[in-house]
UniProtKB/TrEMBL annotation, chain A:
This is Assimilatory nitrite reductase (NAD(P)H) large subunit. Transmembrane segments: none annotated. It comes from Thiocapsa roseopersicina. GO terms for biological process: nitrate assimilation. SUPFAM superfamilies: FAD/NAD(P)-binding domain (SSF51905), Nitrite and sulphite reductase 4Fe-4S domain-like (SSF56014), Nitrite/Sulfite reductase N-terminal domain-like (SSF55124).
TrEMBL record, chain B:
InterPro entries: Rieske-like_NirD (IPR012748), Rieske_2Fe-2S (IPR017941), Rieske_2Fe-2S_sf (IPR036922). The lineage of its organism: Bacteria, Pseudomonadati, Pseudomonadota, Gammaproteobacteria, Chromatiales. Pfam families: Rieske. This is Nitrite reductase (NADH) small subunit. GO terms for biological process: nitrate assimilation. Gene3D superfamilies: Rieske [2Fe-2S] iron-sulphur domain. Residues 9-105 form the Rieske domain. It comes from Thiocapsa roseopersicina.
C-alpha cells in the first residue's frame, strides 16, 4: 500500500518538532518531504544570541543533522522555499521548480523581522535579527566596522546589542518608549536592567523615533524625528516580528494577523495544518518556543490519526539571555483593576521583585536579580493555586515557606561551571549547560534523563530549571499539564478523572480506553495507574503486583546489596518486653546483620535474603506483629511522646491517641508515604509539625496539623483546626487522608500538594464542610476494610510463594 | 540437539512458574540468572546484576521488552542486555527457548 504523503513547508523548530512528535507516534504512516528556505538543516533558533556573542558556534546549535533526515527516510530540500500551493491538485511548487504532491500539508513558515518603512531601510548594512544569515552578516560587519545601532529595546534587540558588543562593537540601543522591554517588564525593573546594561558599556537613546537611515553605498548614519543624527556602520532592526503568511495568503487560505487555525492546528483547508509563529490561534500569535512545542504535540496527534489532542493557548514566561543578568517575567505583570501588588526592592543589591495577585491567585510576576523562584511562581500561576495562606512569605520564594531546606546554591547566574548543582548525583553547572546545548534539550525531564541532575531527591529542581531557562533564554517554559509519562499525553489528573468517570477497574482497561502508546505501559505509569485504580475502586479494582515497585510487591525494603529489611509495626511506638523478646529471638534465629531504631520509632531488621522473608514473618506474626509497611507509598508510622500518662507537662494522652490513629490508618495505600505524630503538649517532643498529619495536644483538646515534611525540604505544617475529642481527631485524620488519597497525584507528598491546592481549599473540604468530611471519613473506613489484611501473615501462610523461592538451583 | 547443546542448555522449569511481566531466578555459582516472561509470553534471560551498581534485575518492573532495575531505574533491553540511552552498560544475555511449555536457558552467555 502506498503511504500517504506529508509535506512540511518550513524547516524550522516548530515544523520539525511536529515531525519528531509524529515519528514517535507513527513512524511509518507518511512519506515525508521537508522544504526549507535557509541552506541549513533544522537548528536551534533561540540559541542565535549565544552564537552572535561568540559563546557558541553554529555547529553547536544544529538540532537535526542531515544524517538524521536520511535515517528517518525524510526527503529534505534546503535553500529552496515553496512558492506556490495548488490546493486543487494538492501539490506544492518550490522556487527551483520542484513539484511535490501532498495528502497532508503543514505550513510552518515562521515569521519575518519587521523592517520599519523609513527611507534607507534597504541600504546595505541594515539587517533584521532572525536567522543564521543575519548573525553571520553581523559577525562579518563587526570584523571591519566599529559602530552599531540596534533599533528596538525589546528582548531581541537587547540580546542583539549585547552580542554585537561582545563582538567588539560600540553599540547604541534606540528605543521608541521610555521603558526597555515594556512587554515584559514594569518600569522599576526596566530601570535596573538599563543601569546594569549601561555598566556593561551599552549606550541607550530612549524615546527616539527613527526618521531615516542615511548613507551612500551602505549605512552611514541614522536620523531621528527630532532632527538629531548618530553615525553608525550597522543598523539592526529588532522592533518585532510578523507572521510570515504570504504563501498561505497566495493560496487563498484564511489569514488575519497570522494563518488562522483551530484547536487542532488545522487551517480553513482540512488538508492543511499550520503551526508555529506563522499562525493565529484564538486571536493570539506566539513568538516563543514553548507554545510552538505544545502546538507541535497537538498537530502530531492529529496527523497520527489519534484525534484527541487540543491546543488551548499558552501562558508564557520570559527570560533575557544576557550572560550574568537574571530576569524573569510572566503573566499580567503590569497589574490593573482588581489586582494587588507585592513588592520587594533592593536597588543596592540589584534585586527587584513584583508579584501581581488577583482574587487570591498569582496573576503575574516580574523578577530581577533573583529569579530562582520564577519556575515556582509560574507553576502557581498555571495551577491557579489559592495563595492566601502563604501570602506573607510568597515573595521570598518556595525555600522560605516557613522552613529551611537542604542548603545549596540559589542563583544560577552567580555559579561557576564547576559548582555542584545536584548534590545527590554530583552534577555540576557546566555539565548541565553542555548537555542542554550539545544535545538540544528543552525540558526538565530531558535534563534529568541526560545528566541525572534533579533525578534523585529533586531539591535542586528549581536550580536546574533556572539553568535551563538562562541557557535557553526567552523561550523556555514548562508545558501546561505534564503527561504521566511518554506512554500518553494525559496528565495525572486527567487519567484519574477517566478512571472514575468511565469506571475503569484494571490496567488493561486504562491502556485500551485511554489509547496508551505502549501496550503494557512502562515503569513510570504502571505504579501510578495501579494506585489510582485501587484507591478509586478499592472493592473492585485488581491490584496488579507486577506493577508495583519491588518493595511493595515483596512487602520489605530492598537494600543496595539486594537483601531486604523488615520492620514490624509497633503501634504508637509503644512496645513491651514480650514484643522486644520476640523481635530479638527472630533477629538471632535469622542471623539479622543489623538491628536499627528507625526515625519513626520502630525497629529495623536488616540484611535478610528474599527466601528468608516468609519464615521470619511467620515468627513475627505468630508473636502478634503485623507488617509495618515501612516499604510502601502508604501510612508509615505514628510517632508519639509519652504524654499525660507519665510526663509532668503532658496535657493529653498522646500515646493512646497515637495507638488509636495507627490502628485506624495502618495498611492504607496513599499517593506517597504518609507519616503521623502525636505530641502530648505544645512542647511537641514527637515533632508533629513536620509530619503529613500532626496532632499536638492542648489543654482544651487537640490541634491538628497538615502538610509537614522533614525530608528533602523541611516544611512546617499548616494548622488545620482545633478539636476537642479523640473521636474528632480520628474523623479529621481519616477524612484528610482520604482527600489526599483521592486528589493528590501519585508520588506527590502532602507538603507540595498542600502548597499546590492551597490550605484554604483543604480547610473548605475538611473543616467547613461537615457533610463532606463525614463522607470522606466513611469512604476511608470503607477502603480500610480491604486494606487491613496483613500481607505478612498471608505470605507466611504460603501466598505468592513463587516470589520467595528460586526457580531452580544448579551447581557450577 | 548436539552433545555441546546438552551441556549448555538447561531446563529451568515451566512457563507457568514465571509470573507474566515478572521474573524468577536461576541460582548458580557462576552468578544468578534472571529469567523473564513478558506480557506476550516471550522468555528472556540476563545475568541478574545491573551493569550500573549490581542491582537484582529480577526484581524490576518489566514492560514491553525492557526491564527497569529496582535500585536506580536503569532500563535494559531484555534481548540484548544493553542499557537504554543515555545510560551505557550491558548485562550478559543468555539464549532461551520454550518447548511444550518447558523453559530452557543456555548457560553460556551470547
Amino acid at each position: 500500500m502506498n503511504k500517504e504523503r506529508l509535506v512540511l513547508v518550513g524547516n524550522g523548530m516548530a515544523g520539525m518538532r511536529t515531525i519528531e512528535e509524529l515519528l514517535k507516534l507513527e513512524p511509518d504512516l507518511y512519506e515525508i518531504t521537508v522544504f526549507g528556505a535557509e541552506p541549513h538543516p533544522n537548528y536551534n533558533r533561540i540559541l542565535l544570541s549565544p552564537v552572535l556573542s561568540g559563546e557558541k558556534t553554529i555547529d553547536e546549535i544544529i538540532l537535526n543533522s542531515r544524517d538524521w533526515y536520511a535515517e528517518h527516510g525524510i526527503t529534505l530540500h534546503t535553500g529552496d522555499p515553496v512558492e506556490h500551493i495548488d490546493r486543487r491538485k494538492r501539490l506544492v511548487r518550490s522556487r527551483f521548480g520542484l513539484e511535490v504532491p501532498y495528502d497532508r500539508l503543514i505550513l510552518a513558515t515562521g515569521s519575518n523581522p519587521f523592517i520599519i518603512p523609513v527611507p534607507g531601510a534597504d541600504l546595505p548594512g541594515v539587517l533584521g535579527y532572525r536567522d543564521i544569515a543575519d548573525v553571520e552578516a553581523m559577525i562579518e560587519t563587526a570584523r571591519g566596522f566599529k559602530r552599531a545601532i540596534v533599533i528596538g529595546g525589546g528582548l531581541l534587540g537587547l540580546e542583539a546589542a549585547y552580542g554585537l558588543q561582545q563582538q567588539g562593537m560600540e553599540v547604541t540601543v534606540v528605543h521608541l518608549l521610555d521603558t526597555l522591554m515594556e512587554r515584559q517588564l514594569d518600569k522599576p525593573a526596566a530601570a535596573l536592567l538599563k543601569a546594569s546594561l549601561e555598566k556593561r558599556g551599552l549606550t541607550f537613546l530612549m524615546e527616539a523615533q527613527t526618521a531615516a537611515i542615511q548613507g551612500r553605498d551602505r549605512v552611514e548614519s541614522v536620523r531621528f524625528a527630532d532632527g538629531s543624527e548618530i553615525a553608525t556602520d550597522l543598523v539592526v532592526m529588532a522592533v518585532g516580528i510578523r507572521p510570515n503568511m504570504a504563501l498561505a495568503q497566495s493560496a487563498g487560505i484564511h489569514c488575519e494577523r497570522g494563518i488562522v487555525v483551530d484547536d487542532t492546528m488545522l487551517t480553513y483547508d482540512a488538508r492543511i495544518y499550520a503551526i508555529g509563529e506563522c499562525v493565529q490561534h484564538r486571536g493570539q500569535c506566539y513568538g516563543l518556543v514553548a507554545p510552538l512545542f505544545e502546538q507541535a504535540k497537538v498537530c502530531a496527534n492529529h496527523l497520527a490519526k489519534l484525534g484527541y489532542g487540543r491546543y488551548q493557548g499558552s501562558v508564557t514566561s520570559t527570560k533575557l539571555k544576557v550572560t550574568g543578568i537574571d530576569l524573569f517575567s510572566a503573566g499580567q505583570y503590569q497589574g490593573g483593576d482588581g489586582c494587588e501588588e507585592i513588592l520587594f526592592q533592593d536597588p543596592g543589591a540589584g534585586i527587584y521583585k513584583k508579584l501581581v495577585i488577583r482574587e487570591n491567585r498569582l496573576a503575574g510576576a516580574v523578577l530581577y536579580g533573583d529569579t530562582i523562584d520564577g519556575a515556582w511562581f509560574f507553576q502557581l500561576m498555571r495551577e491557579a493555586t489559592d495563595i492566601s495562606a502563604m501570602r506573607e512569605d510568597l515573595l521570598f520564594g518556595q525555600a522560605h515557606l516557613g522552613d529551611s531546606g537542604h542548603g545549596g546554591q540559589t542563583q544560577a547566574a552567580l555559579m561557576t561551571d564547576e559548582m555542584q548543582v545536584c548534590d545527590c548525583n554530583g552534577v555540576c553547572k557546566g555539565e548541565i549547560v553542555k548537555a542542554i546545548t550539545s544535545k538540544g534539550l528543552f525540558t526538565l525531564e530531558d535534563v534529568k534523563l541526560h545528566t541525572k541532575a534533579a533525578a534523585s531527591c529533586g531539591s535542586c529542581t528549581g536550580l536546574v530549571e533556572q539553568i535551563l531557562a538562562s541557557t535557553l533564554g526567552s523561550d523556555y517554559s514548562t508545558p501546561e499539564a505534564k503527561p504521566i509519562c511518554t506512554c500518553t499525553d494525559y496528565s495525572h489528573d486527567q487519567v484519574r478523572a477517566a478512571i472514575r468517570e468511565q469506571h475503569l477497574t484494571s490496567l488493561s482497561d486504562c491502556f485500551e480506553k485511554l489509547d496508551w502508546r505502549r501496550p503494557d505501559g512502562c515503569h513510570v505509569c504502571r505504579p501510578a495507574l495501579n494506585y489510582y485504580l485501587i484507591s478509586t475502586w478499592p472493592a473492585e479494582a485488581i491490584d496488579d503486583s507486577q506493577s508495583r515497585f519491588v518493595n511493595e510487591r515483596v512487602h520489605a525494603n530492598i537494600q543496595k546489596d539486594g537483601t531486604y529489611s523488615v520492620i514490624p509495626r509497633i503501634f504508637g511506638g509503644e512496645t513491651s518486653p514480650a514484643q522486644l523478646r520476640a523481635i530479638a529471638e527472630a533477629a538471632e534465629k535469622y542471623a539479622v546483620r543489623s538491628v536499627k531504631i528507625t526515625g519513626g520509632q520502630r525497629i529495623d531488621l536488616l540484611g535478610l535474603t528474599k527466601e528468608q522473608l516468609p519464615h521470619i514473618w511467620k515468627d513475627l506474626t505468630d508473636a502478634g506483629f503485623v507488617s509495618g509497611h515501612a516499604y510502601g507509598k502508604s501510612m508509615r508510622t505514628v510517632k508519639t511522646c509519652v504524654g499525660s500518662q507519665w510526663c509532668r507537662f503532658g496535657v493529653q494522652d498522646s500515646t493512646k491517641m497515637g495507638i488509636e490513629l495507627e490502628e485506624l490508618t495502618w495498611g492504607s495505600w496513599t499517593p506517597h508515604k504518609f507519616k503521623l505524630a502525636v505530641s502530648g503538649c505544645p512542647r511537641n517532643c514527637a515533632e508533629a509539625t513536620i509530619k503529613d498529619f500532626g496532632v499536638v495536644a492542648i489543654e482544651s483538646g487537640w490541634e491538628l496539623h497538615i502538610g509537614g515534611n522533614g525530608g528533602v525540604k523541611v516544611r512546617a505544617t499548616d494548622v488545620l483546626c482545633r478539636v476537642t475529642t479523640p473521636e474528632q481527631v480520628k474523623e479529621y485524620c481519616g477524612a484528610f487522608m482520604q482527600l489526599y488519597r483521592e486528589e493528590a497525584r501519585y508520588l506527590e507528598r502532602t507538603a507540595p500538594w498542600v502548597e499546590r491546592v492551597g490550605l484554604a481549599y483543604i480547610k473548605k473540604r475538611i473543616v467547613e464542610d461537615e457533610i463532606g468530611r463525614r463522607a470522606f471519613y466513611k469512604r476511608f473506613l470503607e477502603s480500610q476494610k480491604q486494606a487491613q489484611v496483613d500481607p505478612w501473615k498471608e505470605r507466611a501462610a504460603g501466598a505468592e510463594a513463587h516470589e520467595f523461592t528460586a526457580l531452580k538451583q544448579v551447581n557450577g | 540437539m548436539t552433545a555441546v547443546d546438552d551441556k549448555t542448555w538447561l531446563e529451568v522449569g515451566t512457563l507457568d512458574e514465571i509470573p507474566r511481566q515478572g521474573a524468577r531466578v536461576l541460582k548458580r555459582e557462576g552468578g544468578d540468572i534472571a529469567v523473564f516472561r513478558t506480557a506476550a509470553d516471550e522468555v528472556f534471560a540476563l545475568l541478574n546484576r545491573c551493569p550500573h551498581r549490581g542491582g537484582p534485575l529480577s526484581e524490576g518492573i518489566l514492560y514491553g521488552r525492557n526491564i527497569v532495575c529496582p535500585l536506580h531505574n536503569w532500563c535494559l533491553d531484555l534481548a540484548s542486555g544493553e542499557a537504554k540511552e543515555p545510560d551505557e552498560g550491558c548485562a550478559p544475555a543468555y539464549a532461551t527457548r520454550i518447548e511444550a511449555g518447558r523453559v530452557f536457558v543456555c548457560t553460556e552467555p551470547n
